[in-house]
Amino acid sequence: GAVVSQHPSWVICKSGTSVKIECRSLDFQATTMFWYRQFPKQSLMLMATSNEGSKATYEQGVEKDKFLINHASLTLSTLTVTSAHPEDSSFYICSAHTGGNQPQHFGDGTRLSIL
Amino acid sequence: RKEVEQDPGPFNVPEGATVAFNCTYSNSASQSFFWYRQDCRKEPKLLMSVYSSGNEDGRFTAQLNRASQYISLLIRDSKLSDSATYLCVVENQGGKLIFGQGTELSVKP
User: Fold this and answer.
1) In terms of Cα–Cα distance, which of A85, A106, A86 is closest to A24?
2) Residues of B whose CB is below 8 A from A91
3) What pLDDT, in 10s, does the model give residues A93-103?
4) Please, are residues A53 and A71 in contact by the beta-carbon 8 Å criterion?
5) What distance in Å separates the CA atoms of residue B58 and residue A115, rounded to the nearest whole number?
6) For residue B53, is pLDDT > 90?
7) B16-55 burial, b for 16+ CB within 10 Å, e for fewer?
8) Residue numbers in A near B99 (CB within 8 A)
9) d(CA A108, CA B99)
10) Which residues of A55-77 are buried (b: 16+ CB within 10 A; e: fewer)?
């Protein structure tokens, strides 16, 4: 079946560090990928839609200069949390569509902890 | 008001019980509907899609009522392994998934 790989799975960094998270579709091409964030005891919230070859579209309240998204190929989207602070600590998950009416497939998620 | 609302939970039930999850959504233009389960500190995994005609997969039955914008999930003969958080999810235009806050289920022996 379709697989989405996310890396790294766990990051612990000092405040002020920038962190890059990769999301890869392993056996299909994804023109669109999605990035979500989940704080403890809360549900997943869509942050942005990553479009291959064009700019990402961000949800209301998500700072595009803080969360840089690059979707340079049909199998890879990256999310960079720039100058991360403790309040950015969260579980970041990507997903991708195989197309048509198929449900989305999620990556394993990245647990980010900023000290 | 949240776009997708679920029972707050948690539900604590004995093995073998029947459990019902309820969900309402506010966007009448929502296109697709799903139930996902999420285990602690893991990514959500698709449990089943939900159709207006209702659909069943083993012990799991899902229903959609578009007129009342209501989605349900029924788990029969619950197992210990069913313990998880159940997420009601709607898909809007452009493939955007909107998640409910989740209902935690704990099945006890």
Assistant:
1) A106
2) 41
3) 999 977 666 77
4) yes
5) 45
6) no
7) eeebebebbbeeeebebbbbbbbeeeebbeebbbbeeeee
8) 36, 43-45
9) 17
10) ebebeeebeeeebbbebeeebbb
